[in-house]
Amino acid sequence: MSAPPRTAAPSPATEPLPVMAERPPWRHTFIALSVPNFRIWTAGNVVAMTAGWMQRIAQDWLVLELTGSATAVGITVALQFAPMLFFGLLGGVIVDRFSKRALMIATQSTFAVLSLGLAALTLAGAVEAWHVFAIAFATGLVTVIDNPARQVIVSELVGHRHLRNAISVNSSVFQLGGMIGPAISGVLLLAVGAGWAFVVNGVACALVVVMLSMLRTAEMTRTVPAARSRGQLRAGLAYAAAKPTILVPVVLVASYAVFGLTMPVLLASFAADVYDVGAGGYGLFNSMIAVGALTGALLSTRRATIRLRTIVLGLLATGTLQAVAGSMPTVGAFAVTLVAVGLASLLFLTAANQLVQLSSNIAIRGRVMSLYVLVLLGGQAIGGPVMGVVVESVGTHAAMVLSGGVPAVVAAITALVLARRGQLTLQMRVRRHVPVVEIAHR
């Protein structure tokens, strides 16, 4: 009998985490902000997220102006997220080995240089589509390390007890930026062009570096860096695959990322080709999604528990609403429906993020979160150009219906699979004389 193959040391088991398990009183809706380090982090994030959204909108619109092609916008999205698809898991290994704060200082400094470089090209009138493509790709390479580090550092700032609330606050800040940033970017695009949006983002990234240097490291719940050893990446994947509370959210997020999170392509096409509302309308559409998402982020701070059922129903609702948005006949109805899409999407994504983080041991969380970020961002790298082609092939309305319909079907299939495995059951209840199908735990 041959000797068994050499394998990596087993991953640490997830220990019970001291998180709040009850719905917090209203005065504790933002309890994570009682931690000084998290207040500093959040203040910097408000500026950074707003500026990041400004750059995202300006970049996509600039490509549309330079090329006149929705497919080119999709290529830009793909180039920015493709590095995460190919190197994301390696980024998680790096995050587990080194100081998250030091890594983020390096990544944010690089982001500042890239944004200011794109600003210089644009303001000088020398920018071409390939410049934007190249800088988008370079930004994606840096994101391979920055994003998982950003996910994991939150637990070092607040500890485990308030981690769930901190994730919701982070989502609120991201969506607040998503509400303000596109509106400001739309004004700048109309008034002075895309270049100044890139300047603002470069300065904001520099401010984040300053914010990181202000953190009180003695008060952080620092994670002991993982020692370098063979098989760490494989161990992380095996750990995630063995836990339904990690694997199922990752699969559902992947389906939504490929189809549902292709809004830059879809909304640019709706603004330019369907409703003819230009850059200002494009910024407005993104702001409407962000209004709903901010509402969803605030509601997520009130959650007492998160289960697989929460994730499955969340994607089913999100996909259905997005498909409905694609059938709206007027710009007003479309914009209003986008608010509902943003709310449902944020509740789903926040719940998935929280369940994955709270299900993973801190010693391996960098690798687990890199898998989550890989499917979230890498899926958009695949979906961006695919949806660009779909838009030009079958039309914008049909593409939007498809972008929501596919994830909704995946959610329904997942519910059936989990039911067959005994992890969920489908129940029929009658409410006010109306039969309602519910998903429940056995």
Automatic annotation (TrEMBL):
Membrane-spanning parts: 70-95, 102-123, 129-146, 167-190, 196-215, 236-259, 279-299, 306-325, 331-350, 371-391, 397-419
Pfam families tied to this protein: MFS_3
SUPFAM superfamilies referenced in this protein's UniProt entry, alphabetically: MFS general substrate transporter
Gene Ontology CC terms, in alphabetical order: plasma membrane
Source species, domain of life: Bacteria
Annotated Major facilitator superfamily (MFS) profile domain residues: 29-423
Matches recorded under InterPro entries: MFS_dom (IPR020846), MFS_trans_sf (IPR036259), TM_effector (IPR010290)
Main localization of the protein described in the UniProt heading: membrane
Keywords: Cell membrane, Membrane, Transmembrane, Transmembrane helix, Transport
Cellular localization per UniProt: Cell membrane
GO molecular function, one term: transmembrane transporter activity
Topological category with respect to the lipid bilayer: Multi-pass membrane protein
Name recorded for this polypeptide: MFS family permease
Organism this protein belongs to: Frigoribacterium faeni
